[in-house]
Amino acid sequence: MALEHHDNSLLRDFAEAFYHNTKNVYTGAAKPGSESVLKYEEQMFDSINAGN
Question: What is the reported pTM?
């Protein structure tokens, strides 16, 4: 499994940011490219790269 050696808290952080971004864009609460979307994208990027 590709993620078996990844820190679970980092995976949780990624999943939470992904969920919020997807929900907010889907419901129209945020637009793609908005400040909040970019903030969550940065959190996802940081979570993925912190496990290297």
Answer: 0.78
Q: Quick one: tokens of 36?
A: 């909040």
Contact 27, 21 (CB under 8 A): no
Tokens standing for residue 12? 């949780």
For residue 29, the tally of other CB atoms under 10 A from its CB is 11
| pLDDT one-digit tens code per residue, 1-52 | 455 665 788 889 999 999 999 999 999 999 999 999 999 999 999 988 886 6
Contacts with 20 (C-beta within 8 Å, 6 or more apart), sequence order:
40
Q: Are 45 and 13 in contact (CB under 8 A)?
A: no
- Kindly state the DSSP code that residue 39 receives in the 8-state scheme: H
